[in-house]
Give the backbone structure.
Amino acid sequence: MIKRTAHAEITELLTEFPAVGVLGPRQVGKTTLAQEIAQASSKEFLYLDLESPSDLSRISEPEDYFERYKGRLIILDEIQRVPELFPILRGIIDRRQREGYHTGQFLILGSASLDLLQQSSETLAGRIAYKELAGLTALEIDPYDQDKLWLRGGFPRSFLAKDDHAAMRWRTNFISTYLERDVPQLGLRIPAVTLRRLWIMLAHNQGGQLNVAQLGANLDVSASTAKRYIELLEDLLLVHALRPWSGNIGKRLVKTPKVYIRDSGLTHALLNLTTLDDVFGHPVVGASWEGFVVENLLSCLRTGASCWFYRTSAGAEIDLVIEQGPRKTYAIEIKRSLAPTVSKGFHLGCEDIGATRRFIVYPGKEAYAVKPNVSALPLTEMMNELKSLH
């Protein structure tokens, strides 16, 4: 069993809010984590899978049903399937607060942000806190398994598979299930073959700037339709669009986002890369490592932090810019090299944005100074550095 770093944070949120929402893609470990948290608490708990017809039938009269279990932590899994529950939960939470039940009433799990956030923001404002659960991160595994995590991705069943081929089979089936079952269940009429082609194109262009018109032309759909498909993958927490830094500094800044498939294992599965040798022999190797590092670093950010990339038409470029308050701007370059260096464009970009700290994240094991003002750090050390930000 792998101890998730989100365990402590979600437990704390349950002591502060009536409801806590945990968001993450399917099979990322939300249910397992929720049940571990419930079992570790002093409260009795009730688990309901809202995709299960038998569990759905139990809440045909939700107010009466929940009233019978007052005082317990109620876990509602895949709640985006039953959005009509949100107004009912609001009334239940408000009534219980008047009766003295102020915290730890509901733990809500969702695999898609588009319905969950829209519905809950309308009805549970001030009553719910959110935590996004990503895949396994480099801080949650044995340091010697970092390359395995990069290859197989952060879905627990893929990472823990008996070998690389078994891990690939799991991810291939996962992709097919998402395309053929999960997306249609959201009421979206998108051909599975079209969405698969888009996903593969994004894998080939991992970390590249988004050219919606070109993607649309390749898919034989309009640019607006291609944009909607990408937003769907983003809403399903499978794709991340990193926006460009947009400060007013009088420069000609790039305006289109960079797009990453969030899980490196899915990137490799879409490109049919089963082993590390396959990855190292493919042109995507550098971009795949960059996406893997970005996803791990973003999982460490505290509330209120902002993340961007920086690029100008003159060639200044920074892979990742993290801003935590007006006096903490981190410029991070990502290199898949054991002897990393930075270009003149990185230094120019740092001057443009007023970077307070400058780092290179690389796959080595030791931290050292590349230049007096630039430090090279292993991924886990950079993650701990970001966790320490206040």
Notes: The longest strand covers residues 317-323. The mean pLDDT is 89. The chain is about 45% helix and 20% strand.
